[in-house]
Amino acid sequence: MAFCSRTVFKCFKCLERAADRVTGAAGPVFVTLACILLSIGTFAFFEVIAPTLSFPIISIPICILLATNMFAHYYYVCTVSPGFADDPRALQTTREGNTWVWAKKRQVKTGVQWSDSDELRLTAARHNKCKKCGVHRPERSHHCKICKRCVLKYDHHCPVRINQCVGLHNERHFVLFMAYVVISSFFFFTLGWPSLWMSFEFFDGNWNYWTPTWAFLLCYILAVVLCFALFVMCGWHVWSLAQGETSVESHDFDGYRKIARSREDTFINSFDLGSRRNLQLFFNVGPTGYPLYTLLLPLRTAPYTDGWEWAKGEGLDRHKGISEGEEYTDQE
């Protein structure tokens, strides 16, 4: 029986590795397809729907801003490295650029005193050695089995949409991309409702657009599906961020809570500073980061940390309720 179990387990592992190789190889195809679909949908909106909008002097610039943000954040999340533990730390601390695409941080004037709750206190991250690649890495890093490297603040590997990992340096763009897709697709199917009915009557000769009716119908259906699917996904992601945790940490912390409850203890996430502060630090806005308006513009921003230091709850050097050695590894 034990031999059979081990054999089945090895077979599943082989299938999993094969699936990882296939999705990794097909990643560029998925990204290309996503770019084509987004471009067709945007063209259809501005050709068919935008001319029918009221107050075009206001509505058209808003639509252009939404589309620009959507494409810009998709470009950033696909091209910005998530950050790897084996990169030189000097490279991690100098990622913020000086070109026009980079937002400018808030300038703190001399003599201004922020409240204690706004003060940013960073604690050196605890280190461990990866059992798979042997790299010394800070906490919150995980080994990606597809990239075969340890990613700083690893969230997940996304082969279908961006063909790379979501981590410390591109997670903000990933969330904003999803948010702008939700908003854009919502406007497409709500404002495009009259055009949808017009497309059903194309045989009367009223459809005088470059966009074929079948393409507009496809874009409309895709907008409805994307709006609801990504709304759920983006909402769950933002909720996790408000708890001070990544997707993989959310799964791990559920296990830690069970371990803590088994000995009548309470698990406390050391990275949880409260929902408002957690979101401030993730988007790096507020007194110690960038202005809030950077969330509305297609600009690059740097995270509040290089991944080797973290803001933690007062008096918490590590998670409460979990002992050394009980934390999960990449194998689990």
Word description of this protein:
The chain is mainly α and 332 residues long. It is built from eight helices and eight strands. It has helices spanning 2-49, 56-79, 89-93, 171-191, 193-199, 213-242, 247-262, 275-283; strands at 122-124, 127-129, 136-138, 142-144, 149-151, 156-158, 164-166, 309-311. Strands 1-8 form a two-stranded antiparallel sheet. It has a two-stranded antiparallel ribbon with strand order 2-3. A hairpin with a 6-residue loop joins strand 2 (127-129) and strand 3. Helix 4 packs across helix 6 (213-242). It is elongated, with a radius of gyration of 23 Å. The two termini are 23 Å apart. 32% of the residues are buried. Residues 2-6, 8-16 and 109-115 have low confidence and may be disordered.
SSE arrangement:
Elements: H1 2-49, H2 56-79, H3 89-93, E1 122-124, E2 127-129, E3 136-138, E4 142-144, E5 149-151, E6 156-158, E7 164-166, H4 171-191, H5 193-199, H6 213-242, H7 247-262, H8 275-283, E8 309-311
Antiparallel strand pairs: 1-8, 2-3, 4-5, 6-7
Helix pairs in contact: 1-6, 2-4, 4-6
Oligomer: single chain
From N to C, what is the helix and strand string?
HHHEEEEEEEHHHHHE
The biggest sheet amounts to: 2 strands, antiparallel
Strand order of the largest sheet: 1-8
Anisotropy-based shape: elongated
Estimate what percentage of residues fall within beta strands.
5-15%
Which runs of at least 5 residues are low in confidence (pLDDT < 50)?
2-6, 8-16, 109-115
Give the CA-CA distance, first to last residue: 23 Å
Q: What percent of the residues sit in helical stretches (DSSP H or I)?
A: 40-55%
Rg from C-alpha positions? 23 Å
Look at the helices and sheets and give the structural class.
mainly alpha
Total helical segments: 8
Mean pLDDT: 84
* Number of beta-strand segments: 8
